[in-house]
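Here is one chain, start to finish.
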Amino acid sequence: PRRSNFMKKKKSFILISAALSAVLFASCSTSVSTNFSANWYENTGNNTVAPGTNETLVYDVEKKADSGLNSSYSVEYQKGTYTTTLSTEQRTNEDGKNELFYSYQTKLEISVQFLFGSEVSDVFNDVLTSKVLFRSTQTGLQPIYSEKEVYSHSPINIAPSSLEGCYAEYHYKVVTEYRDKCTAGTATLTDLSEENGTEQTKNFSISDDYSYIDNEELLFAIRGMSLTASEQLLVYNASTESVQTVKVVPSEEASDEFEFEVDGQASKKTITYRPVSIAINATNPGATQTAYYAKTVAATNNTWRNVMLKLETPISYNLGTLVYTLKSASFTK
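Its structure:
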């Protein structure tokens, strides 16, 4: 059954929520600012947007085995794929000058099915795509534009009374544009479930309390942080139509063996990394994600580029955890 509950069930999830239905964050300037390093380059001191930047990361996405405590119903995901691409794009900035920006694009493809007692839903093929343009580390990875399109089937109840009450279909697009040196923005939410979808536009202002990062670059931006102490970032949450604070809390570094392809060649190496928890800094923060970032090897010979090795994101309503595991990497030369 098709249900178009467009933004009726508003929730605050961090980043690519396993619910696959949330609209998340956006960002820009600061008072307590975060210092970013270009850890995605071999030379982390490169503080400009380098022409020729070209990186592709591919992750396997699976539901963690034996995860999920909901006794009313369950959700199963077939193995999915999450792909991120970092490149550059030249555009005219608000001063009318040509400027080279980072272009960061993501795509998540995954199939989902809901089980309620003896009833089983169809298998739905969900797709989420995003693109964000932002400046160099010199300007705090300041975003100028982002877009995100979601087609997903997401859980909506803790204890539904029927299979139809387990999930809703969402199909929408969010476009965020920044102005006035990223002290203000406009988010336009379009319902794509109907031929002439409705639009909702929200203007918002951005304080300088903390560094501001667009939601679609959030995981990437954390990759550029030192991760030696807890920090906070500002983001715009389109589902609550407000700028919120996200807390980034690193744990002690650890080492483990990871296996993924590097530039087409199989690689199995012991890599030192830091687990990082990511959550809204609020009384009821919602889901907390945990991302695992490789540690800087050397400032001018950063082999693993501080890449995100793994991501764990809880599925809402105690339905389990999705795990993103790095499968292949093609780093910028």
